[in-house]
Amino acid sequence: MKRRRDCIWTLAVGCALLLGGPAMAQEMSAVDTTHVAVKLDNDTLQVTEVTLRPGEKLPLHTHPAYVIYTIYGGTVRIVNQGGKTDDLVWDHGQVIYGDPEGPHTTENVGKTTLKILVVELKVPAAARKK
To answer: Fewest beta carbons less than 10 Å away: which of 10, 40, 47, 53?
Structure first.
């Protein structure tokens, strides 16, 4: 189990470092401390673990560029602030890259608990001052 966890961390951090440094968006951990646990937070990235049981939903939040690693997959509904809705199936072990996203909610509309690792990229402090 420890070896699998080490592989997940290595994959998530490696992908994040390769993707570059777009602007930092609102942190999910700031809007939901019940479902979102911060695992790592530094000047380069924030890694969070998100756990949603069936029917649970993250409140309105945004993302900078990110990578998701699905620990336990399921069906999610993403509803953008403008009303656009997408139902997605995330498989166990799936890796998903996403460009920065505007305000949206994420809901587990499946029948199983969803657990994902989200790696969000930050711009170094020196770059933010420009």
So the answer is: 10
